[in-house]
Task: structure prediction
Amino acid sequence: MDPANFDAAEQLPPVNPLRIENPALIPAARYYDEAFYRLECERLWPNVWQMACRLEQIPNVGDWIEYSNVGKSVIIVRTKDGIKAHQNHCRHRGVPLAGGQGNAEGKSAHGNCAKSGFICPFHGWRWNMEGECTFVYGRHLFDEELLDKDELALRPVRVETWGGCAFINHNPDAPSLRESLGPVLDRLEARGMSKLRSEWWFATVLPANWKVAMEAFMEGYHVMKTHPQLQHAQPSLYNSRYGNETGGLGPTVNPNASARQNVCEALDSMELLSAGMAGLVHGKEVEIARQFEHAELPEDPQVAMMTWYGMVCEAITKQLRERGEDVPDLVQVMQEHPVEAVEYLFPHYFLLTYFTSMSSYRIRPLGPESCLFEIWSLTHFPEGQEPEPVRESTVLPFDSQDFPMIPRQDYSNIPIQQKGLHSEGLDVLRLSKEREGLISNYQRLIDGYIAGAEGERLAAANRKLGGNFDGPILDLELE
Result:
């Protein structure tokens, strides 16, 4: 049964034996059960917007890249009229026209078809970048009714662009990308998302379910133990958010410390984030912030830090613009378009942001207990000084010391958590209703897709996930 053609009036939705009943309790088998994984492949992935490529990977007319996920391969190509996407199969006997190796090795096939088009490696049939069949070898050998022009055209895949990326959806009737993801797109775009360029792109295969990998970044509650260097650099921030016995957020600075001490904590934290994640806090931003290490500030610690961050944001905006970078006005954008430290674009893409640069992550399933995990470091460059596009990922073992420190620390947990999920007696995972709500909200939205909920209701639930990092369990109104 094709999920894109599912008709709730004619067919009953599939039975989901691992459906979430209590939002704070997630059945452990959802992370390894093969039947549940098949439900995701059949009901979730064909109906959601997937980040297929960065547009800088296909800068010229005719440039293409293959995107594959859960057995479906798509060609994303830049044509004279914009970005198009085609199902990656020859209309003769189904051989992939481009790439066709899937994503198991972490590599994306790419090239340019402006001169030769797409040529089937089996019998030499050809298609142009628009998807029109331009050559059938031995045409006289076929009955003419088998060679109808429309039938031979490559099957289109719905594609939309946003934030410097192309997103595809196999369901032509699904709500649009903007309808599905909502105002978080505007908030991120206000930070210059579409103008960012890749510095580097790493990939690895993790021996874990794709949701385990995603959920490792859905809360900051793990920082104290997993990233102790961040906790030690700025303990007042993390302790007030996660360790306060009163349950409140508490101050974001140490009220007993001087403004100078709080500034030093903040700078040390930025240095660690920069060294550990690159794009999250870029080195050029830390360099500018360091100029204000000894700034004169009000005595009140909270007022002092607000003043200091304002000075730093103004200076980053001014100095990067003077270098020719088209960065947003940070003070204005932080006031008018606030975002969380991590913003998720359901189901498999998320962004980490602080000042003007970002880190972005994409995770694709390779099976019930394996996934492809990719990280980009994104920043601005002066016009005309952009680097050559990063067209291929650097694939590393997940335990490679070449990864930045922060993902390396996360990778130390994810594979062993996957093993622990098989432990006898571990039936459910228990979530904090206040800080781990995004995990529950994500999982219950997946259940909505499996159940065949109406597209507008799914989109409305999806929009609630914007800004939900470290957030509470929500009523998604999918019942």
The longest strand covers residues 197-206. The chain has a mean pLDDT of 92.
